[in-house]
Amino acid sequence: MTIKEVPYDMYLKEVNQKLTSRGIFLTTKENKLNTMIIGWGGITYFWGKPIFLVAVRKSRFTYNQIEKSGEFTVSIPLNEDLNKAIAFCGTKSGRDFDKFKECNLTPIPAQKIETPIIGECSLHYECKVVYKQDMIKENLDAGIDKRWYPDYHTFYFGEIVASYIKE
Ligand SMILES: Cc1cc2nc3c(=O)[nH]c(=O)nc-3n(C[C@H](O)[C@H](O)[C@H](O)COP(=O)(O)O)c2cc1C
């Protein structure tokens, strides 16, 4: 296994495409290791830092995890077919399942943070939360509120401290 570091913005198009088509893995580790699927978010730039922005509803097990750990990894299959794992991890909760075990996913230690990456994926981002923001109903477009809520997201701005391809 070799790790090839890549600039944080080298795969913007691919990340966006995977996010909006199938979803990508957001992994957290507190007492338990867990991963879920996200379809919204993306790579951006704030405060002179590369940022991975993710949106997690308060009902997710992941919400409790990330609140405590303050970090996460994002793993993206580029050519690998992980559709089955995506379907499972995007519908079942870490409260009820060990998703790594159920989906035969391999946790691999990250380079700079405590949260592992998913060995079956090729593209990875390690992130430390530098800002978070709960959604505020009064600030939200009424049409979006009606269509998508009441289970509001919390937005986590994760500074990308490492980005690489695992070969
Ligand atoms: C394609 C897809 C995209 C998703 N995007 C998000 C998202 O951006 N934010 C979110 O909170 N949940 C999202 N979900 C739902 C979570 O992945 C799902 O509720 C998961 O079971 C939560 O796991 P957890 O309870 O272990 O955290 C998405 C699910 C799918 C299938």
TrEMBL record:
Membrane-spanning parts: 37-56
Annotated signal sequence range: none
InterPro entries: Flavin_Rdtase-like_dom, Flavoredoxin, Split_barrel_FMN-bd
Limits of the Flavin reductase like domain: 27-165
Keyword vocabulary terms for this entry: Membrane, Transmembrane, Transmembrane helix
Domain of life from the UniProt record: Bacteria
Keyword Membrane: yes
Molecular function terms from GO: FMN binding; oxidoreductase activity, acting on the CH-NH group of donors, NAD or NADP as acceptor
Family per similarity comment: Belongs to the flavoredoxin family.
Protein name: Flavin reductase domain protein FMN-binding protein
The species this protein was found in: Thermoanaerobacterium xylanolyticum (strain ATCC 49914 / DSM 7097 / LX-11)
Upper classification of the organism: Bacteria, Bacillati, Bacillota, Clostridia, Thermoanaerobacterales
